[in-house]
Design goal:
With about 160 residues, this protein is an alpha/beta fold. It has helices at about 10-15, 35-40, 45-55, 65-70, 75-85, 100-105, 115-125, 130-140, 145-155, and strands at about 5, 30, 60, 90-95, 110. The protein has a five-stranded parallel sheet with strand order 3-2-1-4-5. Helix 6 links the parallel strand 4 and strand 5. Helix 2 packs antiparallel against helix 5. The longest helix has 12 residues, at about 75-85. It starts with a strand and ends with a helix.
């Protein structure tokens, strides 16, 4: 069975701003309606809004935010992603927010982030330069520690 990735706003915004949202094309993705609504606001870059507009078929609305997730006080986007994955245990939450990641770990949910998506696509050959992808995403505004970049390049750029 192929992996299904449930996206929060941050990965879509970061990848879109960095010109890397093409990496989502080969993956099976789902976007909770709360995330799509959040990204439809004018404050987000045109590329992220455009991604939502062109991927309407990936938006899901058949979920309820779980009370145990709601109790964490996260945003609607994070809460919807985690609630979907809570019900679909084999799906993977794609979240960068620290508190939301802690919540996912408490409930033993499958989890990755924007960097994880980049690594997956690098391994399957959709990204030629891991270093360029990391710095594109960093320049787009996603916080990346230089030591983390260095460690990941040492580990993965030799594949």
């Amino acid at each position: 069975m192929e992996k299904v990735f449930v996206l929060n706003s941050s990965p879509i915004i970061s990848l879109s701003k960095a010109g890397l949202n093409f990496i989502l094309e080969k993956l099976i993705i789902k976007i909770p309606q709360d995330v799509a609504i959040e990204l439809s606001h004018e404050k987000y870059v045109d590329e992220a809004r455009e991604f939502i507009i062109t991927n309407q078929n990936k938006i899901i609305s058949d979920y309820v935010i779980s009370d145990k997730i709601r109790d964490w006080g996260l945003g609607n986007g994070e809460s919807s992603v985690l609630s979907v994955v809570l019900k679909q245990k084999d799906w993977i939450a794609v979240i960068d927010d620290g508190e939301a990641r802690k919540c996912a770990k408490v409930y033993n949910l499958n989890l990755t982030g924007t960097i994880g998506l980049i690594l997956i696509d690098y391994k399957i050959g959709l990204i030629d330069s891991l270093e360029q992808a990391f710095y594109s995403i960093k320049n787009a505004g996603l916080y990346l520690n230089e030591n983390l970049i260095s460690d990941l390049l040492k580990k993965f750029d030799r594949l």
